[in-house]
Structure formats: structure tokens, C-alpha cells
Amino acid sequence: MTVSKYDNNSKLFILACLFLIFDYGRVQDILSIGFLRPTMVIIFILSVLLITSGKLQYVLTRQVLLIGVFIVLLGLHIPFAHNNYLAFATTRNMLLIFPFILAVVISVSSFARLKKLVMLFIFLMVYVSIYSFFHSGLGPGNYFADENDLSLYINTWLPFPYFLFFVEKETKKKFFYLGSVIVGVLAVVISFSRGGFVGLICMMVVAWAVSSYKIKSAILVIVIGLLIFEFGGDKYLQEMSTVKEIHSGTAQERILSWKAAWAMFLDHPLGVGGNNFQVLFPRYQPPELKRGMYGRVAHSLWFTLLAELGIPGIIVYLSLLCLNIKDILQIRCLEVPSDANKYLSALSFGFLASFAGFFVSGSFLSVLYYPHYWYLTAIVVAGKRVALQLE
Predict the structure, then answer these.
(1) In terms of residue numbers, what domain contains 336?
(2) Most exposed: 1, 219, 286, 299, by fewest CB within 10 Å?
(3) Of 118, 39, 43, whose CA–CA distance to 347 is shortest?
(4) What's the average model confidence in pLDDT over 139-146?
């Protein structure tokens, strides 16, 4: 059946893309229109369209339901948290990205739209990377205000142009994908983030391991390595070599924070509530750290999850990860037309390497509530749906 160019699905897709541009590109900060609260306005309109779309049945996937359970779990902690406002704000922020996730799952209903959305994510990664070149390794605020956060973001989205480069036939797009990889790697190098460096290396290892193009992939990995050596220089390599020094500096402080998180979990196996680790940290901080370190975060996605959402949170989060991996592997096994097959196969490889980049980098950062993984989950769900339609 032919649909109008401006049917409900199209509006959802356009608004979802627009939200992403404001959320990741931070256009409102550059144009000084933040006072208009564009992301909030778009989310409100998305919510209205979702409620009136009559298509909410399409979002009743296990992943979407688990994200909903995760948000409910955060909400249940609000009245019991030591700092109720922080628990509330964390729940609210997660709830605000939920309409975008639902919009992606509903509106990305064709192969063409899936490709457009992935291309937009890559464009934004390139933009943020180039922005960091001129701002001392920092991105345009929000999730990229810290060089470590910037590197994690790039490591999360870098695998997609990496794998699409191998399957793309159009010369211009092929060069764009290659350029995206180079720009992303250089941004990680310029950031001087040790966690980002470790995440990049692990992501590249996984990318090579899962790739069907072992020789070509190995050549590209070597080129990336040469870029790191050439542009990073001796100073960069010397700084990265300190990553193995775990008994001093920030590495030791992270380990001590993890010990505090473990002790907090043992006392509160159901969790202390969203962003409440920093509130209770002074009670659990090891004696090696200076006293009264209120506001210190766990510096690890996993230990944040352990302390703040406890056993229920661990079950929900790991269940979501297992479902995502299962769907990714299923996408690779479906029999779809040859061109779509190559693209979807590259996308599935990209997901696996992306998870490696995100979770390795995130093991040293408190990024549990950052949107990257939740957005990836929406694309996994949409990608599987599109692949099933093509089969």
C-alpha cells in the first residue's frame, strides 16, 4: 500500500533524526538557542505522535520491555534513596530518551531508513571528532565534555564505518567510510585518554576477529596503528604505556572506588538508587583516599550498576545484553537479498565490535546512564525487524 510522504511513520523518523542531531551534535549550544529546549520540545512531540500512532504494538519487543523495566527499577528507588532528587533526576533523564528509542523501533521499518539512520550516526561521529580537533580533544558538551567520554563515544560508533567500508561499492561512500575511520582514530589519539586507547585496541581486535575480510581487515588495522604512532608520537605512546601502572595515580583511585562500590553492594544488594553512589561514597571510601570525597563516582559502568541498582539491575542489564547479542547473531543468519545481506552482515559485525569498544571503555567510566548503549539497542531491534521483512 502506498503511503503519504508525511505519514505518521515518516514524521516519527524525521523527528527521531532531528532529536539525534540536537542530542549528539549539540546544535543548540553552537547557535545559542539552548533556551528554546529543542530536545525537550522534540521529545514532547515524539511522545504525542507515539501515543496517537496506534503502532505501539511494534515496540513490544523483549529489549524495549527490559529498558522499560530498567527505568521502572530506577523509579522504585526514588523514595528510598539517600538523595531523592538525584534518583529522580536519573530516572527522568532515562525516561526522556525512551521516546526516541520507541520512535526508532517503530519508524525504522525499511532497509532504506535503516541505512539513513546508521549514516546519520556516522556523520555525527565525524562531526564530533572534527570538533574535538579544535577544542583540545573535547566534544561539543553534554556526553563529550570530557576527553574520556569523547573516546568512549567514538569507540562505540567507529566500527560501523570500519565494516561498511569493506562492503560499500559506491566510490564516494567508500572514501567517506574510510575517512570516518581515520578521523575517529585521530580524535581518540588527540584526546590522550588511556581508557579510550584500551577501548580502541580491544575494539580493533574484536573487529579483526569477527571480520570475514581477515587480510583486508588486518591491513586496515595496521594503517590505524601507523596513524596512532605517527600522530600520537612518543609522548602519546609514553602516556599510554602508563595504563599498566595500577598501584598509583588515577588507576589506583579507580580500583579503590571499585572496592567502595563492592562494599556498598554488600550492604545494599538491591541498590542505593540512581547516582547515589556519589552520595554514599564517603561512608565506604577506603582509608587510602582523602576523607570527605562526596560526589566521587564509581568510574566504571559495571560497578555503578552493581552499587546503584544491585542484583535486580544486574539481571535486567545482562538479560538485555544477551538478547542483543542473540538478535545480532540472528541477523547474520537470515537469508536476505545479496546487497542487503552484505550491509546487514557488516552492521552485525559493527554491533559486536561496538559493544567491545563501549564496554571496555565504559569499564573505566561511569556511563551507565549515557544514551549510547540504549540507542544501539534500538538499532539492533530495528535492524532485526528489517532483516526479517527482507527474508
Answers:
(1) 8-390
(2) 1
(3) 118
(4) 84
